[in-house]
Design goal:
The chain is of the alpha/beta class. It has eight helices and seven strands, in the order H-E-H-E-H-E-H-E-H-E-H-E-H-H-E. The N and C termini lie far apart (45 Å). The N terminus is likely disordered.
């Protein structure tokens, strides 16, 4: 069943089936035009990324997601919207940054509502940990920006600590037009009265 689902995604062209997990992507083969690249790590049901890609045809977008059901949603929504500037990759986000994304190729990274792993014994599983700023710096172009959102105050504080401790990053502002565009999780949280915590950092 999984192989058939992957085949459906492959035919639509929105989900990129990795030829190897040991070689970095050739971005020229993913998109019909070379344009500034933005990456969402953990794209959920892709509602944010599909709409953002639709509004910005002058940029290319990659959604990274490890769950098959979610990456299939990116495929279907991207196909319905007729987007040629959107691709999905099914793999763990940290592995994608470390080993698959070409160095200094992304203008922007989006990390919205990653799993907070609230139990103390699970904190090591958080995506945004002490190692993450190094991965982000490797991925981003000079002057590139990472935008972060969470509903978890402890995780938000950790995000601030790890980026404040890295000399290559400085705080940045989140544009209003970006902050106004919500994700699937964010929409649910807002309906329950849960505030979104936002921050951003620009690399040197």
């Amino acid at each position: 069943m999984q192989r058939e689902s992957d085949g459906e995604a492959r035919q639509s062209g929105r989900v990129y089936e990795l030829p190897s997990i040991l070689e970095r992507l050739d971005l020229a083969t993913l998109f019909p035009a070379l344009q500034p690249l933005e990456v969402e790590l953990g794209c959920g049901d892709a509602s944010f990324l599909v709409e953002y890609a639709r509004r910005h045809p002058e940029r290319n977008f990659i959604g990274v997601e490890r769950l098959l059901g979610r990456i299939r949603k990116l495929d279907r929504k991207g196909q319905r919207a007729g987007l040629t500037n959107l691709r999905g990759v099914r793999i763990e986000s940290s592995y994608f940054l470390a080993y698959l994304l070409p160095p200094h190729s992304a203008a922007v990274l989006h990390v919205y509502f990653p799993d907070p792993w609230p139990k103390k014994k699970h904190l090591k599983n958080r995506l945004v940990n002490e190692r993450f700023p190094d991965l982000a710096r490797q991925a981003l172009l000079p002057g590139g920006v990472i935008y972060l959102r969470t509903d978890d105050a402890d995780y938000f504080a950790q995000m601030g600590r790890v980026f404040a401790a890295h000399a290559a990053f400085r705080p940045a502002e989140t544009p209003l037009t970006l902050s106004e565009q919500v994700t699937d999780f964010e929409r649910e949280f807002q309906a329950r009265g849960i505030a979104t915590l936002r921050t951003a950092y620009q690399r040197d």
